[in-house]
Amino acid sequence: MRTVLSVTSECVPLIKTGGLADVAGALPAGLAQTGWQMRTLLPAYPGLIEKAAAKKKVFAFKDLMGGPAGVMAGQAGGVDVLLLDAPHLYDRPGGPYGNPTDFPDNPVRFAALSYAAAQIARDGLSDGWTPQVLHAHDWQAGLAPTYLKLGGDHDVATVMTVHNIAFQGLAPAAMLGAMQLPISEFTSEGLEYWGQISTLKAGLVDADAITTVSPTYAAELMRPEFGMGLDGLIAHRAADLSGILNGIDMDVWNPETDQEITAYSATSLKGKAKNRKALMAEFGLSKIDGPLAIVVSRLTSQKGMDLIADTADQFVAMGGGLAILGSGDPAIEDQMRMLARNHPGRIGLRIGYDEALSHRMFGGGDVVLVPSRFEPCGLTQLYGLRYGTVPVVAATGGLADSVINANVMAQTSNAATGFQFHPVDSLAFGHCLRNVTDQFGDKSGWTRLQKRGMKQQLGWEASSAAYAALYERLLA
């Protein structure tokens, strides 16, 4: 059995703020089918040791960046987890990153996570388990390859996965000492970024291989408009870069067994009409003859929510309706409230997030709108495909890789699964929505489009095989 240590700040089912947690929680089971055993290291936030029944200490630190710490082994949802129990760093109320704003010592908190990962990779655990590969996720684990390198010669391969390059783990140079980093690493060839520490850059420099969560996003990251200042470094390491598209949990997201909705399948969509009616009632909507569009998203400009505000009036005029679930930028939240006030019965809004409601929305929606300005992978469009809720996406990142645009040739060859638009602006989005509304009027063609999307391979099988192949190449 091959072994890999995954290092992450969040992991389903223990703790989640975004898609990173879904990936970290799903990858171990997929890899197990390829002969790889993954154990996942994350901080022991309050309550996690109890949730994972992590009673066995398998590593100890007398002093880990300000206090004693231990690594506790447990299991949650089929994931073998290693919880870094360091109360001085993680035993505090609020989310994993702050309450309500970022904790000022976050650079040290996640440097400690990376340092612990490097020590485990080098020394192994007291139960005899030693990883052959160290797989770091995002800036929170970016220093793990660096600490491993600083410890001297080793035979552990390292992988750095970028889930979203917009978050780079920046810290003042004055924190080098607190993060136990030597001044020799603070160079333009190392972890220095415009006079600051960048933990993501450290991982990009020191890991043996770099991955990101879709092939198109991998290509985009080498361009200034997407690379967030790290495009030159990533282009320099292009030979070590690969894009591996994320999957989804096909059991959790399954319209045939979802307890929140009336069941339906790709062979019989009969239940979807009942779900649509129930969703409209839940959002106070009525008299929607065109497509019922759902939005399940952070309400930010990166997610293109301003484009929805710009085009909502014309979409409603075409007969469409909107059900919106999300929170984010206060100004965009206010825009959404105004839309709902201006279009009672046609636009419904819920500020916040509700996992069960999101399932009901995918079960009842006709289309799901994902107009992101950039999107490393995206899971929302995959949920849409799975539920026959046709994705309407910007042609960027993983959205472009996972949705086959309903252009003339794709329609003629029965290949289309959704709609793409480009450039990412209100004019192109509005034109795309007009096309969506027109095609929605062809009920038999629309049903074929839905069923085609529902039959796509959206699970982790292909992605896990790609990660396993990468690990094998690194060891070879």
Automatic annotation (TrEMBL):
Classification via CDD domains: GT5_Glycogen_synthase_DULL1-like
Pfam families reported in the protein's UniProt record: Glyco_transf_5 (PF08323)
UniProt-listed Gene3D superfamilies: Glycogen Phosphorylase B (3.40.50.2000)
Catalytic activity: [(1->4)-alpha-D-glucosyl](n) + ADP-alpha-D-glucose = [(1->4)-alpha-D-glucosyl](n+1) + ADP + H(+)
Domain Starch synthase catalytic: 4-235
InterPro entries the UniProt entry points to: GS/SS (IPR011835), Starch_synth_cat_dom (IPR013534)
Single annotated GO MF: alpha-1,4-glucan glucosyltransferase (ADP-glucose donor) activity
Key words of the record: Glycogen biosynthesis, Glycosyltransferase, Transferase
Top-level EC class as recorded in UniProt: transferase
SUPFAM superfamilies the UniProt entry points to: UDP-Glycosyltransferase/glycogen phosphorylase
Pathway in which this enzyme or protein is active: Glycan biosynthesis; glycogen biosynthesis
Residue numbers binding ADP-alpha-D-glucose: 16
E.C. no: 2.4.1.21
Function: Synthesizes alpha-1,4-glucan chains using ADP-glucose.
Family per record: Belongs to the glycosyltransferase 1 family. Bacterial/plant glycogen synthase subfamily.
Protein name, as recorded: Glycogen synthase
Lineage: Bacteria, Pseudomonadati, Pseudomonadota, Alphaproteobacteria, Rhodobacterales
Gene name as annotated: glgA
